[in-house]
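Posted in: Protein Modeling Q&A

I'm a second-year student putting together a small comparison for a lab meeting, and my supervisor asked me to include a predicted structure for Variant surface glycoprotein 616. I've never done this before, so apologies if this is the wrong subforum. The sequence is pasted below exactly as I got it from our records. If anyone can share the structure token output, I'd also love a short note on what stands out.
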Amino acid sequence: MLLAPTETNADSQSTKAAIAATTPCKAVLFMEKLAASLQTKLAAEMEKAKARTDEAAALAVAAAAAADDNKRLGYNILWAIAVQAEEGQVERIKQLNALYAPAVTQLANLSTRIRSAAMLHNRKVTKKGTVAHDTAAPPGADSADAQCKYDGWTEQVSDAQCSEADELKDELAAHKITPDHLEKIPYPNEEYLTTVAHTVTAYSKGTPDSATAGGQSWVCSGAAERTEGRISNANAIGSLLAAEPITATIAAVEIAGTNKNQNCKGSQAGTTTEAQAKAVFLSTICSLAAVPAAPIVSALETTTTGLKSGAQAVAIVKAAMQGAGLLSTEAREIDKAALEKFISSTFGTSDKAVEDEFIAPLGKVKLNYIANNKEKTETPTTIAQGKNVAVALGFLSGKALETDAIKNTNPDKEIKPTEKCEPDTKENECKKDENCEFKDGKCKLKEGVKAENDGKTTNTTGSNSFVINKAPLLLAVLLL
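Accepted answer (user: helix_wrangler)
Welcome! Here is the predicted structure, written out as tokens:
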């Protein structure tokens, strides 16, 4: 009976790319693209941080401009959620940078080393040097009668031309090279990185032992050899040096799975300088697996259902209920019915009250505020993304306050009957004035007040407090 083959998880696309990097050029390009992918991911997280900051500012603006206490409380809860998301995003960037920055450095270093090794292993002789000879024995050959030297022998390394168009395709396509689910990383054999090789060919011409012993001119070829490629002397011996490339063996080393513990030990795993360098590289790349997987959720993704169920922002909602005196300060949990009631009373009874009545208006409802003595009309989202967010917050906060203490700093002002209780005044604002009433969808003067006070200075709040005439253009409340 044949046993069924053991099932294994298929390699991820990034792991397949690592396995496909089997040549020096492919390994170099893999390292470079992986480093670029890490930098791109970090930049994207920074963009998210800016978005979280803008969202918090937009909700702060909306809270300052809210028309009533429930709106203000709802926006303040969402603002708190946004601040939490902003802090979480900043912390996430710190964590990612602590992992990504060393990895980018290691990838760049190894890429440079492989490229340099490829250039060295593809070198060619450019000049054989000036031929010289001497009767003295050369170092390392004490019993020799003479020596010859090729002074100035040079070799030229070749540039490692790695074409992305030719190399980065199929399994090694650039978009597949990412840190996501990466379980292997290509690494070359030590000899390729640390060793250079030559082939030495010795030669002779004529009968060297018949030469004049005193001059020993027979021991080296003449100058023509280095320029013309031929031996000019009648009797000569010598040698030729030819660069010999070391074969690169690129292996995909496991950084996850069964061999992770063996390959991710850190610098202590190596006994030589090169072994330690490899151990540090692998350990650093292994650390990429520690990247926090769950992204930070935007406050604008808050839902009515999420708040009511306790799945979202439960700690913030709990704090709001405790602050409102609706929950004991020692309470560890929130009663489900009490939670649902609080959310409904704050945000509204609709199944999508948070989404439709609080979040959607951020990009639609326009607010009026003064910045640099000029009136501006913008949505909270636009204000948050602009340069006047601080000024707008100050203006709208002051506009919402309007306490008696602030009103008392202004001089008495005569208010004509036609200027009181303007028709477009909101219902809640209209009812604040004892001389006004809201009927038929409009704010009106009460009949008796209109007849009695026509043309007179009207004290509406007491002996030292007077209502300030409000220009309609300066109304800065959310029309929700």
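A couple of things worth pointing out for your meeting: Residues 1-8, 210-215, 403-415, 451-480 have pLDDT under 50 and may be disordered. Residues 69-120 form the longest helix (52 residues).
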